[in-house]
Hints:
- By secondary structure, the protein is of the alpha+beta class.
- The chain folds into 2 domains: 1-34; 44-117, Immunoglobulin-like (Sandwich), CATH 2.60.40.1220.
- It is 17% helix and 30% strand.
- A hairpin with a 5-residue loop joins strand 3 and strand 4 (86-87).
Amino acid sequence: MAVKAGEIFGGGIERIILLSRTLLVIALVAASLQAVPSRAHTELLQAVPKPEAVVEKSPEKISLIFSEELDPAFSGMSLIDDNGDTIQVDGLIIAGKKMDTSISETLGEGIYRVNWHLLSID
């Protein structure tokens, strides 16, 4: 009994060609899909005082502007001195894309860090 080459794969050469073409089309479609970049994180667009700024006198307030609207219930800011102590800030206002606070005391010479956390509104 003679067996044709296509019958070994259970459907003949036509089935193999069809399967190959289908796989080729799937591969071409998959290759043509490009990842669309997305911004997964809200970006800080502007800060007053600016990051790494050296100021002549103690700032009276801190203002931050972000790329997305903020959820006030899950956003906040703190000011830390170079000893790691938290400096009292007053009247944190979060509205739209902006976060503002007043500094209640005059800051002495030193390095201060503004820590902020946020949740943006989609």
